[in-house]
Amino acid sequence: MKTFFKILGIVFAALFIYAVVVQYNDPDALMWYAIYGIAALASILFFMERLNLLSAVVLTIAYLIGVFVIWPEQFEGVTIGEGDIVNIERGREALGLLIVGVVMAVYAFRIRFVGKSKV
After folding, report:
1. How far apart are CA 71 and CA 102, in angstroms?
2. Residue 119 reports pLDDT greater than 70
3. Would you say residue 118 lies in a domain?
4. Is 78 within the bounds of a domain?
5. CA–CA separation, 20 vs 46, rounded Å?
């Protein structure tokens, strides 16, 4: 089970680094560099077993709050051309934050319960 979570950490680190790279043409790219860059760093630390519980919990809460802050008033999907572009962009951004928040929650639960489990 430990190997599974180490692989999970490195896979998400790579995915978050990729997310950083593809933000270059976004109008608010610096903000998204930071958002996904911090997630990548947390994933690397999780892989190295250096991420602490408090950091994982704070990141989970921050990313999930971000989902609610950025969620569009009317969700119209994520495909361009199927609605208002602003709503679609905000929906995409919110879903990205949701993915990161869930990953950080998985890290937090793993860190919290790893010492109590025999698995």
Report:
1. 16
2. no
3. no
4. yes
5. 19
